[in-house]
Amino acid sequence: MRNYLIALDAMGGDFGPHISLLAAKKTLQKYPTLSLIIVGTREKIIPLLKQYDLLDHDRLSFVHAENVISMEDNPIYVLRHVSNSSMHTVLKMVADGDVDACVSAGNTGALMLLAKQALKTIPSVSRPALVSGLPNNCGGHTYLLDLGANLQCDSDTLFNFAVMGSVLCEKVEQVPKPTVALLNVGKENNKGSDIIKRSATLLGESNYINYVGFIEADELFSCKADVVVTDGFSGNVALKSYEGMGRVFLQQLDKAVNSSFYTKLLGKLLSPILKKQFKHLHPDMYNGASLIGLRGIVVKSHGSANEIAFSYAIEQAIKEIQWQIPNSISNRLEAVLSERDCLSHE
Amino acid sequence: MRNYLIALDAMGGDFGPHISLLAAKKTLQKYPTLSLIIVGTREKIIPLLKQYDLLDHDRLSFVHAENVISMEDNPIYVLRHVSNSSMHTVLKMVADGDVDACVSAGNTGALMLLAKQALKTIPSVSRPALVSGLPNNCGGHTYLLDLGANLQCDSDTLFNFAVMGSVLCEKVEQVPKPTVALLNVGKENNKGSDIIKRSATLLGESNYINYVGFIEADELFSCKADVVVTDGFSGNVALKSYEGMGRVFLQQLDKAVNSSFYTKLLGKLLSPILKKQFKHLHPDMYNGASLIGLRGIVVKSHGSANEIAFSYAIEQAIKEIQWQIPNSISNRLEAVLSERDCLSHE
User: One GO molecular function term (chains A, B) (predicted)?
Assistant: First the structure.
């Protein structure tokens, strides 16, 4: 790995800055050529850097930012009236080329708007999309987008999502010609809205997309598609439903195991094998949603991420730097759109 | 229980008519004052009635229907060009008052359109909604609607869903003043589309709705709301995501338990308690989605239902007859809409 430099917005997330500092420490140990810049308010960060023995780390530096954007702040208000926050600072570092990427666990809506303002989108992309590689049933990842950045989408936007998701999956997962499906309420051609039907036509026409048809939400992670495309409302609902059901199951399993001394004993004996089996489904393991379609790398960590989860988000940023995702997406989109121009002139 | 009469469309579902016949037999045993009419093609049904010893049952009769609507048939084609199917027949029986309700596991889109045509909607309802009471984390049910009958919905439609879902939950679950939430991508007031924001205002203004705000999909079954309202696309995605994740977890649990002789033994010992704990989450237990907003009772059984699941759908129909759901919904909607008229004239 070359020498990469990533800026961390340490002020986001539900549990305070110590999460990003612990994640930073862990990731620096794992990647000896990685350097990190921690951005946050001096009063909060300096004591923690001391506490975690990071003050004199030769690959970690600190930059002060005056303001903090809270999870409750209205993104449009932030865009218009707030400046000099930790989020503004990390995005400006990416925009100015001072760092290779940034990671934030802050307010998603604000990150979207500020990232678009600071970094600008790739030509032909109107708004960035939020995408994550979620663990599927075959031990790999299914890339789902959009996860909530674009609540309503037209067919061209869904088409662009398919292109961008394909590039990300192909590079990061090393899957040649990733299969792409559209999320719908049924598999038959007559199902879904006019927007979805038109998207299906566009995707079917392109040689750059390995389009395999509609997919229903119960098969999202059945490995029928490497990339699943939908609008941000449905994508968010699908992702959170999976997380919610996962939590319900783990709670029920816990209740069953803790219902008596006898089951506790059996559960204790089974526990290591259960942990191993469920490990790849744990939300920590797929933390790190990427904002793609921008002229720079921005990774969003889950607000409720712990240090393990936050360190996965940093690793996601490392992979995107390695594969130069913004450039790859830009080049692919250019090729795809010129193909569409040719098709429309035939 | 009074003497109820329910018509079963025996030709729907993925596994053939024997499912509905086995479910009929089971339900007749459980409810001694219930009578059923089996509707289907003579050639298929009569041999099965013989096989299951149902030919001379004094509370079961058979009605022949010439045609069958398949799961693949285009609903609009069916509406325009098909007649005399088993689905047509059961719906006509409800419309003519010959039976108290009907149950079908057939093509959902066709059932929607034919039911609307045959039964008509309640005043002020433009299209029926599909709703199901799903097992929640507190041992009760959360009513989610719409599950796919109305892909795009305006604020007035979502408001009507809230009223209809409240009535169903209040009556069937015996929950006084059920809490109602709107599914959204965040809990804050500024989240979501204009349609969702306007729906929130309408719901907040009504004294007939116990509106508690937005809910995210990971908390759908956390008991924060008795009724969750959303458009049919998102509702379908949420429901199927839950089902999909449930399946993934059960598969992983199975893999973990079957990974060695030792874990198999432990799993076998834990199995009864696990079965008990997970029983209420099993899809069989919440089969039976209701088409509400019609002037009659129509229950949709899942296409992949087995006989246990199908019998739950028949029981759902029984509860709706007991509580006269169509009348109750009609009366409540009238009251709510006259309240809204008053509010708009204040």
Answer: acyltransferase activity
Angle between helix B261-278 and helix A232-257 axes, rounded to 10 deg: 110
Cis check for the bond before B156: say yes or no (omega within 30 of 0): no
Residue among B220, B240, B263 minimizing CB distance to A244: B220
Which conformational region is residue B12 in: left (phi greater than 0), alpha (psi within -120 to 50 degrees), or beta? beta
Residues B109 and B140 reside in one and the same domain: no
Question: Which residue of A252, A276, A277 is in closest CB contact with B277?
Answer: A252
Number of domains forming the structure of chain B: 2
Same domain, A169 and A257: yes
- Distance, in Å, from the CA atom of B275 to the CA atom of B135, rounded to the nearest integer, reads 15
Q: Is B214 on the interface with A (CB under 8 A)?
A: no
Task: Tell me the C-alpha distance between A333 and A121, whole Å.
Answer: 12
Matching residue, tokens 């059961």: B90
**Token representation of residue B61:** 């009769």
Q: Confidence class of residue B324 from pLDDT cuts 50, 70 and 90?
A: very high
Q: Which residues of B152-167 are buried (b: 16+ CB within 10 A; e: fewer)?
A: ebebbbbbbbbbbbbb
Q: Which domain holds residue B163?
A: 129-292
In a domain, A94, yes or no: yes
Q: What is the average pLDDT value for chain B, to the nearest integer?
A: 90
Q: Give pLDDT tens digits for A217-262.
A: 999 988 899 999 999 999 999 999 888 887 777 777 777 777 778 7
- One-letter amino acid for residue B206 of the chain: S
Peptide bond into B284 cis (omega under 30): no
Is ipTM strictly over 0.85?
Answer: yes
Sequence-ordered alpha helix ranges (H) in A31-107: 42-51, 75-81, 86-95
Same domain, A107 and A193: no
Residues 6+ apart with CB under 8 A from B283: B243, B246, B302, B309
Distance from CA of B183 to the nearest CA of A (A): 8
Structure-token pair, residue B83: 């007649």
Q: Are A200 and A230 in contact (CB under 8 A)?
A: no
pLDDT tens digits for B240-280? Answer: 988 888 777 777 777 777 777 877 877 777 777 777 766 66
Compute the Cα dihedral for B255, B260, B266, B271 and give only its sign: positive
* A120 token code pair: 């600008």
